[in-house]
Specification:
Elements (H helix, E strand, L loop, with lengths): L11 H9 L9 H9 L37 H24 L4 H33 L7
Helix pairs in contact: 2-4, 3-4
Organism: Sphingobium amiense
Keywords: Membrane, Transmembrane, Transmembrane helix
InterPro entries: DUF983 (IPR009325)
């Protein structure tokens, strides 16, 4: 009696799976999502608050129910803030130092204080924009 063999075709199962997948989900426009994220609002509806505390993202939007805790923002918002602050503060420091005769002791107090205040003001909007970017592009856990 002849043995029956099953031939495995590479890629055939993924082709069959692709043929039976449901229709693509609704589009999530990037621009409005990031604008909502910068304001600390839900990227889906723009109404509900994204944050429960300073940098703690809400589990879900209180208005539309969209899950927001699926993000993986990690350290990226901090990198963006540091990069932006470097590009803002360094030219400002050079210009102020060239135009005004501020004593070095005052500058040693002014610039770090300004950097900390600006970083604290920028981190939440940047994190909101990163979460909105991930939501819009269906990255991380957003499907």
């Amino acid at each position: 009696m002849a043995a029956q063999y099953r031939v495995a075709w590479p890629g055939l199962s993924s082709y069959r799976r692709a043929m039976t997948d449901p229709a693509p989900a609704a589009e999530r426009p990037l621009g409005p999502a990031i604008a909502h994220g910068l304001r600390g609002r839900c990227p889906a509806c723009g109404e509900g608050r994204m944050f429960t505390r300073f940098l703690k993202v809400a589990p879900a939007c209180p208005q539309c129910g969209e899950r927001l805790d699926l993000h993986q923002a990690d350290d990226f918002p901090a990198y963006v803030v540091i990069l932006a602050l470097g590009h803002i503060l360094v030219p400002l420091m050079i210009e102020v130092n060239a135009a005004l005769a501020i004593p070095l002791g005052w500058q040693a107090a002014i610039w770090p204080t300004l950097a900390v205040v600006l970083a604290a003001a920028m981190i939440q909007p940047v994190k909101g924009a990163v979460v909105a970017l991930q939501w819009s592009r269906r990255m991380a856990g957003f499907a």
